[in-house]
Every structure is written in structure tokens, then in C-alpha cells.
Amino acid sequence: MDLKELYQEIILDHGKNPRNKKRCKGFNKQAEGHNPLCGDKVHIFLKLNKEKKVEDISFEGEGCAISIASASIMTETIKGKEFNVAKKILENFLNMLKDGSKLKINSLSEDQNTTMKSLSGVKQFPMRVKCATLAWHTFMHAAEEKKQKANTEKAD
Predict the structure, then answer these.
(1) Quick one: CA torsion of 35, 37, 71, 10, rounded to 10 degrees?
(2) Separation between Cα atoms, residue 82 and residue 51, nearest integer Å
(3) pLDDT, tens digit, for every residue of 23-66?
(4) Which terminus of the chain faces fewer neighbouring Cβ atoms within 10 Å, N or C?
């Protein structure tokens, strides 16, 4: 199996069997996001402890396979991480999609790295980049307690 096939398989798996698609118990932050061009909607539930560690994170929503897969991958990747590490992961992910940068996060396992890289192909489809980044932007809205919805058509 070549890398492209592996990446497609990962996205399909997360799209059809999303992880953490529920309302996590004891969440203390939340935010909604919307991608009006594709119709994707996501609601992030975040449990951030006093030490700013992501104790739990989950999502509810509907959208295309890329949007759902990305939300699933995001929740699996940042759950259990310190907020500052989660923010670095987010920045690396966005740079990977924007300009093809390599992921430079030491705290990710090889599997997590591969799973995140599975979304790198959307860079070739600018409209799909918004699908892939919606949950990630919405996570930041939740963490920073922004009241407005994360919207792919407005600057954050």
C-alpha cells in the first residue's frame, strides 16, 4: 500500500467511524463552528483543567467526510495534551495545510503524526482546506471562550 492509499484509508476510517463524537462529560468550555460553503457544522466540547491540560475533548456535528475525519483526528491528537502543546499542534497542522510545512511536534507518536499527515492532501483543494480546519479553529474558540461562532468565511 502506498502512502496516498494509507492516507485515504485513515480519512475514510475517521469519517465513517469518528472518534469522540459525543458530548464529553464535565466539559467546561464549548464553541460552535460553521463552514457555510460546504455546510459543515461542528460543536466542540472541551474539558480544560486548572493546569490548562486538555482532560477531554469531543465534538458533535455534521458535514463532509473531511470535516468529520478532521474533527475526529483533532480530538484524538490533542486529548491529554497541555494547552500550549495543543496550540503548537494546531499551528503546525494549519501550516501544513497552508504551505506544506512538515509537522514539527516532538510530543506526537509516529501514528499520530501519520494520522495528521493524512489530511495534507487537502492542500491541493483550497475549498477543502476550510473543511479540514473548521474543528481546529473551533477548538481555539472554545479554549479562548470566544462567544461568536468559528466561521471559515470570517477572520478569527
Answers:
(1) -170
(2) 8
(3) 999 999 999 999 998 899 999 999 999 999 999 999 999 999 99
(4) N
CB atoms within 10 A of CB 121: 17
Q: Which residue has the cell 468559528?
A: 150
Cell of 96: 501544513
Q: Which residues contact 98 (CB under 8 A, 6 or more apart)?
A: 123, 129
**pTM for this model (two decimals):** 0.94
Q: Give me the CATH topology for the region 3-144.
A: Sufe protein. Chain: A (3.90.1010)
CA–CA separation, 133 and 17 (whole Å) = 19
Mode of pairing for the β-strands spanning 40-48 and 54-62? antiparallel
Domain locations along the chain? 3-144
Q: Scanning the structure block, which residue is given the C-alpha cell 493524512?
A: 118
Q: What is the DSSP string of the chain?
A: --HHHHHHHHHHHHHHS-TTBS--TT--EEEEEEETTTTEEEEEEEEE-TT-BEEEEEEEEE--HHHHHHHHHHHHHHTTSBHHHHHHHHHHHHHHHHH-PPP--TTS-HHHHHHHHTTGGGGG-HHHHHHHHHHHHHHHHHHTT--SPEETTS--
- Average pLDDT of the residues in 130-138: 96
